[in-house]
TrEMBL record, chain A:
Pfam families: YbjQ_2, YbjQ_3, YbjQ_4. It comes from Sinocyclocheilus grahami (Dianchi golden-line fish). GO terms for biological process: intracellular protein transmembrane transport; positive regulation of D-glucose transmembrane transport; positive regulation of protein targeting to membrane; positive regulation of vesicle fusion; protein localization to plasma membrane. Residues 1-32 form the signal peptide. The gene is c2cd5. GO terms for cellular component: plasma membrane. This is C2 domain-containing protein. The keyword Signal applies. Residues 153-245, 321-420, 534-626 form the C2 domain. GO terms for molecular function: calcium ion binding; calcium-dependent phospholipid binding.
TrEMBL record, chain B:
It comes from Sinocyclocheilus grahami. This is Fibroblast growth factor (acidic) intracellular binding protein a. Pfam families: FIBP. GO terms for cellular component: nucleus. InterPro entries: FIBP. It comes from the Eukaryota. GO terms for molecular function: fibroblast growth factor binding. Signal peptide: none annotated. One of its GO terms (biological process) is platelet aggregation.
Length: 875, 357
């Protein structure tokens, strides 16, 4: 009795839609985790002197999204040779992936215009096109144009990746997002994708234009999502507007540059001063402005004189040459080369808004009208919480809007950090509206004091002690005593607040909170009573925490799900508080449960909210707790951290060596007994013999393969990876080390680690075995007997984990990286003693080896690394 | 407003030793939360009662899901559902099979039947151990009993292998199984002063010396039953008390050896015949199953009580028994030396253990 499949319209897309799409979606997201690899692919390719390289940069997305799933299929390329890449889909595959709703006549109410301004992160800063351009000379302009044109040939210059190799991200403009409310029941033939395609097309165009408005030609960290309730559907897309390096973008044989661009890679892999190498290569060419990589991406990409919104600009606190905004919001991971002061922390904005029950068009209108306010308030909360922590930038920003019959739910999660390049955030000042009352004044000054204390305390907690610098504020400088930011507060209900939004972003003194009603007081209280994180814990929703590097091997991945039943007739404030408490309590529980791992950091804290029923709120969290070594962090934190990252990256490089080996060494690469280590040790020899044109061919043939496979899979019911992976045995040396690994545990069950991150601390991933993408549906007709809903779901999730582990173990792997729970739909009918649950999880199966073991047992991969770097330095 | 559903699942199953103990002790979730709050875990970790409740519920659920695996500990290492590190597994098993001495004293030697299980609420009332915990412990006894009953080979080793228990605990279970199988009476008032560990020690002695497995490892029999042949042979020892000469000779040998070495020599001399008669009669009667049940009672009545009333110290008892045992070998007409050694070795160590000053 799935009356519940009211979600059908949405989910069916998601189900019926071919597994091809599933696989691609999955691979896309997996790719987003194992990003480095992709870029190193192109890096490697370009660094060779081969002129036969025909990889089409116009469609990098296609390539990128297909690499991981194919990582272990030696025969792949040979099966459909000669298919040029350009014959692949003309648009990035994401386009198809998401165009899964079938419409006929589209009814839409777009709230985009208002969204635009809101989502552009009002305080993001201003453009540099003019001034910066002049400074760098015509060459840079030329370069930018060239890059731009390369990107603009693409229909959507969007990247779902969230981390990039150093030097790739030149400038970051800020978050761009677009939402659209659609009615699903107006679609006449839901099986055809045209209408859905058109909907997404609109949204992507909007994103593209937002990026342009910010002076950017690309969008990175891009993602799309939907929320559906009955017939209403909210389509959302967001990303970070950015300018990307042309080095990675240009097509054609750019031998000189590419050969040089190899330098940073090589230096990088040895772990020495990669930063200088990178600078050296670009500087010597004069192709790009000489910027320190630690702050370059903060420099504004847009025209200072023609900013799309009012903002305060200062000269960069690192290089003192370029302008930076006062606050930066992004959806990507913190670039590894960024200069960060102190540590970061998870910042969440939570909001609940009631809505009248309505049908069809009226409902869509009501939602459309609420959305801008919702988004604005979320933004306000984020801003305030950021300032309260004394930080100035957000990474990994993810805003989820869920729609229910009687409410809208908004949850924004991000990782706050203090970017050294950006100015120190001002404090928060509260003012009363009616200054006549003395006790009231007293109250306000008390609150002000509390806020100030909290900021001081937080700065200590997160070790934010930026070097003292003389303030240089461009635009209208704010007098010192008044230089405080304003505690944003909006009243979505009142219209004059909206106009205030426009006015207050001018160059007058903003960031003042007027306490004019009890709600405001409550809000500030909420702000202050956001519980402080227990000692020894850190949290972030990005891959890794800035400032923490010495990870130990102890990791604990977990999933927690809570469903909260609401009373009817709650006010907005009441609802807000409940929702906020729900999230806070969930976090508190996590800290408590994981207290034995202290000091540790909860990484990749990924919250998912849903409104499964009218009075239910469901929050699901998947994250990993990783212990770190406190002592060492203090001593040589930065260095070792870089090492870890470098290792992670070189790991993924190996993934490609493997690929290329499969292609070149022989039709059956497994006949080479040494496997990948063999390849690794002769990189130069290999590079010269590789025919890259066939590589591009292979990419497109992969796509064909995937499609084919998707068809097969669609017919069957199993959605897991094919048996092809299983066919490939491990290279000898590896299997031995793995076996020893297993026997060590003393039981017949192999230990399989799971993590939502792309790496395993203290370990080296030596082989990627393919994607794990599994759907599970579980139903019970004896709910009470199984321990109620909690018992049912607990067992189910435990079993899902077990099945994933078993699957990975069967493939010969010992870990899952980039694990994520994409879907968790839970429905119950306690009266009938029934419940149903659907879960979709995915990740990459890998084989890893502990670094300590690696040093002991095999030296081959290491010598390979050294050789690579030697070769690189030689050129 | 209420939390409808609240679960936490880790890839490595998180289990708190403290909560596990509370669960094993049979406390309800709410009681467990109270205990934890009193334990001060809240101050330690800045948690609230709500967090504690949620955590406790989660853990209880996990334990419940694990319980069926714990019934067959070997399965715990081979199951896929929970990823538990080996040391944790060992802890889970050890604690699950741990029992309260006060509880085991109540059921030791009783038939592990449904009838006994029904009386557990009385036991629970008497010992202050929750009924739930009593049932778990009882079921553990029964389960171990059922498994090893049919197995051949050394009892302790069997238990250790099948239930992955540490040596000490495996030994204790062997004692429980042995007692249950032979239905030794342990609940009589006179025996109440004895602890479970006293009995476990005695059981160990009996298992190691009086069972079939004790003399012949190749025998396809088990450690649970006493060696019938040996019991039969014990009848021959009667000669020590029936033959007047032998008895007097024995007495004089012992008294000569003891003279001047103890303060209670007179009592020893006076009681010799009584005590010797007691011990030999116990031996001669062991062939009857009913008398096997009264083995410990007999020892207490026939030997320990008379000695105690005469204020012997354990040293005195030790001295007496040593000479009592050894002197027999000097008797010319006595032929059953092997049986005597096998019998008295056990009797001596049991009495010494059971003789509390």
């Amino acid at each position: 009795n799935w009356n519940c499949w009211r979600l059908q319209d949405a989910t069916c897309a998601w189900f019926t839609l071919s597994s091809l799409l599933d696989i691609l979606t999955c691979s896309t997201l997996s790719a987003a985790r194992s990003q480095h690899s992709l870029f190193f692919l192109s890096h490697n390719l370009s660094s060779s002197s081969s002129h036969t390289y025909t990889y089409d940069p116009v469609n990098p997305c296609v390539l990128m999204e297909c690499v991981p799933p194919c990582s272990d299929r030696p025969g792949f390329g040979e099966e459909t040779p000669g298919v040029p890449l350009s014959s692949g889909p003309p648009t990035p595959l994401r386009a198809q992936t998401f165009s899964s709703f079938s419409p006929s006549k589209s009814y839409s109410r777009q709230s985009s215009s208002s969204d635009t301004e809101l989502s552009l992160t009002p305080k993001t800063g201003m453009g540099s096109g003019g001034s910066a351009g002049k400074e760098a000379g015509p060459l840079k302009v030329f370069l930018r144009q060239q890059t731009q044109s390369a990107l603009e040939q693409r229909e959507y210059p969007f990247f779902t990746l969230t981390a990039f190799p150093p030097g790739f991200l030149l400038h970051v403009g800020g978050v761009v997002s677009a939402r659209s409310v659609k009615l699903l029941d107006r679609i006449h033939n839901p099986d055809e994708p045209e209408t859905r395609d058109a909907w997404w097309e609109e949204i992507r165009q909007e994103i593209k234009s937002h990026a342009k408005a910010l002076g950017c030609h690309a969008v990175v960290g891009y993602s799309e999502s939907t929320s559906i309730c009955e017939e209403v559907c909210i389509l959302s897309a967001s990303g970070t507007a950015a300018i990307l390096s042309s080095r990675f973008m240009q097509d054609g044989p750019l031998d000189v540059e590419h050969r040089l661009s190899r330098q940073p890679l090589c230096v990088f892999s040895t772990g020495s001063e990669r930063v200088e190498g990178d600078m050296g290569s670009s500087a010597s060419l004069g192709f790009e402005e000489v910027v320190s990589p630690g702050c370059g991406f903060c420099h504004i990409p847009y025209d200072e004189l023609n900013i799309p919104f009012p903002a305060q600009l200062t000269y960069c606190y690192c290089c003192r040459r370029y302008k930076v905004p006062d606050v930066l919001f992004t959806t990507i991971d913190l670039p590894t080369e960024a200069n960060v002061t102190g540590k970061g922390c998870l910042i969440q904005a939570r909001l609940c808004r009631t809505k009248k029950k309505a049908q069809g068009e009226g409902n869509a209108t009501a939602i459309s009208n609420l959305l801008p306010f919702l988004e604005y308030e979320l933004h306000t909360q984020l801003m305030n919480k950021l300032k309260l922590r004394g930080m100035n930038a957000l990474f990994g920003l993810r805003i989820q809007i869920s729609v229910g019959e009687t409410m809208l739910l908004g949850l924004a999660s991000a990782t706050g950090v203090y970017l050294t390049a950006l100015p120190s955030p001002g404090g928060i000042q509260i003012t009363g509206k009616t200054p006549s009352d003395i006790t009231y004044e007293q109250h306000i000054s008390n609150m002000q004091k509390k806020i100030n204390d909290t900021i001081t305390k937080n700065k200590e907690l997160y070790e934010i002690n930026p070097p003292e610098v003389v303030e240089e504020i461009i635009g209208s400088p704010i007098p010192e005593p008044r230089q405080r930011s304003r505690l944003f507060r909006s009243h979505s209900e009142s219209s004059d607040e909206v106009s205030e939004l426009d006015l207050s972003h001018g160059k007058k003194d903003a960031f003042v909170l007027e306490i004019d009603d009890t709600d405001a007081v409550e809000d500030i209280h909420a702000l202050l009573t956001d519980f402080s994180i227990p000692a020894g814990f850190y949290s972030c929703n990005t891959e890794i925490m800035p400032g923490i590097q010495n990870w130990t091997s102890a990791i604990q991945m977990f999933t927690s799900v809570r469903v909260f039943r609401l009373n009817t007739n709650l006010t907005n404030q009441g609802l807000n508080k409940i929702f906020s408490d729900l999230c806070e309590n969930l976090l508190k529980s996590l800290y408590f449960k994981l207290r034995s791992m202290v000091p540790c950091c909860l990484c990749h804290l990924n919250f998912t909210v849903a409104i499964p029923e009218d009075e239910l709120i469901q929050v699901a969290v998947t994250a990993v707790a990783m212990s770190f070594d406190k002592e060492q962090t203090l001593e040589n934190g930065k260095q070792s951290g870089e090492k870890t990252l470098i290792k992670a990256i070189t790991d993924e490089q190996l993934q490609f060596s493997l690929e290329l080996n499969a292609e070149t060494s022989s039709p059956n690469p497994l006949s080479s007994p040494k496997g990948l280590s063999d390849v690794g040790s002769h990189p130069s020899a290999r590079a010269s013999s590789v025919d890259y044109s066939s590589f591009a061919d292979r990419c497109s043939s992969w796509i064909e393969q995937l499609k084919l496979k998707a068809h097969t899979i669609r017919r069957g019911s199993v959605k897991t990876t094919s048996s092809m992976e299983k066919a490939s045995p491990l290279p000898e040396g590896r299997s031995r080390s793995l076996r020893s690994n297993r026997s060590y545990s003393g039981s017949s069950v192999a230990v399989v680690k799971m993590t939502p991150l792309s790496f395993i601390p203290g370990a080296k991933i030596i082989k990627y075995l393919g994607i794990i993408n599994m759907f599970f549906i579980r139903e019970t007709t004896s709910l009470r007997e199984e321990g109620g809903v909690s018992g049912f779901l607990h067992t189910f999730i435990a079993e899902v984990f077990a099945m994933v582990r078993a699957h990975v173990a069967a493939l010969g792997g010992n870990a899952v990286v980039s694990y994520s729970m994409k879907e968790c739909v839970f429905m119950e009918n306690p009266n009938k003693n029934q419940a149903q649950c659907l879960i979709n999880v995915s990740g990459d199966a890998v084989i890893f080896v502990r670094e300590s073991e690696l040093e002991l047992t095999s030296v081959q991969p290491q010598s390979a690394t050294t050789q690579t770097s030697n070769g690189g330095e030689g050129t | 407003m209420s939390v409808e559903l609240d679960v936490f699942v880790g890839n490595t199953t998180i289990m708190d030793k403290e909560v596990y103990q509370l669960w094993l002790n049979g406390y309800t979730v709410n009681d467990a939360v109270k205990f934890r709050i009193e334990g001060g875990v809240m101050e330690e970790c800045e948690a609230s009662a709500e967090v504690l409740l949620s955590d406790t519920m989660d853990q209880y659920r996990t334990f419940q899901m694990c319980e069926r695996l714990l019934h067959h500990p070997a399965k715990l290492a081979n199951q896929l559902l929970f990823q538990i590190p080996p040391d944790r597994q060992a802890m889970l098993i050890e604690r699950y099979y741990a029992f309260d001495d006060s509880f085991v004293r109540e059921v030791l030697g009783k038939k592990l039947s449904k009838g006994t299980k029904k009386d557990l609420d009385d036991v629970s009332l008497k010992t202050g151990i929750t009924l739930k915990s009593c049932r778990r412990q009882f079921d553990n006894f029964k389960r171990v009993f059922k498994v090893v009953e049919e197995l051949k080979g050394p009892l302790v080793e069997n238990i250790r292998q099948h239930f992955l228990l540490p040596d000490q605990l495996a030994g204790d279970y062997a004692a429980i199984v042995f007692f249950a199988n032979n239905r030794f009476e342990t609940g009589k008032k006179k025996l109440l002063y004895l602890t479970f560990q006293d009995f476990a020690f005695c059981a160990g002695q009996l298992i190691n010396n009086w069972t079939v497995g004790a003399v012949d490892n190749m025998m396809e029999d088990m450690d649970v039953d006493l060696d019938k042949e040996f019991l039969q042979d014990l009848k021959d020892l009667k000669i020590l008390i029936t033959d007047k000469d032998l008895l007097d000779q024995h007495k004089s040998l012992v008294c000569t050896a003891l003279r001047g070495k103890t303060n209670v020599f007179n009592e020893m001399e006076a009681n010799f015949k009584n005590l010797s008669r007691g011990l030999v009669n116990i031996a001669a009667k062991l062939i009857n199953a009913k008398d096997v049940r009264d083995f410990f009672i007999d020892i207490v009545e026939k030997f320990i009580e008379p000695c105690r009333s005469d204020k012997w110290t354990s040293i005195d008892v030790n001295l007496y028994l040593t000479h009592y045992t050894n002197s027999v070998h000097i008797l010319d007409t006595f032929k059953y030396h092997a049986v005597w050694t096998r019998y008295m070795g056990v009797i001596k160590s049991c009495i010494l253990r059971m003789y509390h000053d």
